[in-house]
Design brief:
This protein is mostly helical. The chain is 76% helix and 0% strand. It has two domains: 52 residues, Homeodomain-like (Arc Repressor Mutant, subunit A); 129 residues. The protein contains eight helices and no strands. It is elongated and about 55 Å long.
Length: 183
């Protein structure tokens, strides 16, 4: 692997991850094997092991990439002064909706939602000028879980609401939660 240029390495890694996803997305309830991944990716088994330890490490990398995409979008939003949680979720779902919807859905990985929330919490605290752990943990859990569940439903329903309507609904829920906690 050391003699391959970084762009080629990244492309091969991405091809393996995309192959995993294609196998997983066709039947998320069954286990994805290394054999199925290498066949779908068109790479040798030894090439697979240059990049990943096993099949679960591939889905972990996919989940890490999605959590990083959420975090990066939140960072951009806070940096530009547009820290609207609904808008952040909308933009990430437009780019990665199929994967997010499947991973957060009934056949997905229950630990993935936790991974997303763990990635978002420090970004939100920094963006709002709060110290570490400044969010009430119950309020943050409620808000983050609700936003992710609503966004998953929105995507599964083929974005049946206009993005503005969806965003307004999320804002209303968050405002209600914050008001009830403060009142």
């Amino acid at each position: 692997m050391a003699n391959k240029d970084p762009e080629r390495k990244a492309a091969t890694r991405r091809r393996i991850m995309d192959a995993y996803w294609n196998v997983y997305a066709t039947n998320p309830s069954r286990t994805v094997t290394v054999s199925a991944i290498v066949m779908a990716a068109g790479v040798h088994r030894s090439t697979f092991y240059e990049y990943f330890d096993d099949a679960p490490s591939v889905i972990a990398a996919i989940e890490d990439d999605l959590a990083a995409a959420f975090g990066a979008e939140a960072e951009r939003a806070f940096a530009s002064g547009g820290a609207d949680p609904a808008g952040i979720v909308q933009r990430v779902y437009v780019a990665h909706g199929e994967r997010l919807s499947l991973l957060l859905g009934d056949a997905g990985d229950p630990g993935f939602a936790r991974k997303l929330k763990d990635a978002l919490r420090p970004v939100a605290e920094r963006g709002l000028g709060l110290g570490d752990g400044a969010f009430d943990p119950y309020l943050f859990e409620f808000a983050a879980s609700g936003i992710l569940a609503a966004a998953t439903l929105w995507y599964e329903r083929e974005r049946d609401l206009d993005p503005g309507e969806f965003g307004e609904g999320i804002r209303t829920i968050l405002s209600s939660a914050a008001a009830s906690r403060l009142g």
